Give the backbone structure.
Amino acid sequence: MILATVTDEVLPDRSHDAFPRIFETALEQGVSTVEIRMVEAKRYPIVEAEAWDRLRKYGTEYGINFTTVSPGLFKTGLTHDLMKIHRGQLATMSMDLAESIGVKTLVTFGVMREPTDGPDSFAKVVEILRETTELAAARGFTVQLENFPGSWADTADNCLALLEAVDHPDFGYVWDVGNLYEAEPVHFMGGYQKLKPFIRNVHLKDGQFIDGRMVWQHFGKGKTDIKGQIDALKADNYKGTLTIEAKCEPQMDEDFPTSLQYLRSIL
Ligand SMILES: O=C(O)c1ccc(O)c(O)c1
């Protein structure tokens, strides 16, 4: 497994000085593979030009391997004003900028649910995801669907339904048990067995419901069974990225090293 992380999951720092500190902290923990989500204070790809230059400069200086970009694509609803922009400009712009740094993997969400959704909504979501995947594949990209509570890709079964309906070799899955658990607090194993053929990337975070709300915690402290996830991936000889999402609320400098210490003890 390749240990990876996300630009905003290492430190709470979103200042102009953040990237050297973020990359040093990740490297100290043996992590040099990074998914691009926040670029200092703004989300990819609508970022400050100078922040983007710093990401590239320090990325090169510290030997960081950027593998994926996560623009928050389709973290919006079918009828929302932003949907047209996501479908047209955001997907294209995200790939244009990713190409400029040699990244060929785009993370997407599965469209947020809306009260106005009806019987034909699932087919519309499938059409949007397939259209985006075809656009991406024509440019040599692969697309990874990340599950998220409140979206059409919320529970394991709903993710499976979308993955099977889109049915494209370049449309894979980001297995995020923290988010699955927030959508449906059940043990991961049943869903894992069904989703495993589609898994291209794993997002790892731990937490539990406290007073009815999901609280993210250091690895090993929550209820998502991080150790069980690692054991299952090891048993299946998973060789892809294990993306560490260590951020708690409020995010602290110690979150990343503390969760890494636990992770190392079970890897
Ligand atoms: O990419 C995101 O926007 C995002 C936000 C919150 C999460 O818990 C997550 O896994 C991803």
Q: What stands out?
A: The mean pLDDT is 98. DSSP finds nine helices and twelve strands in the chain.
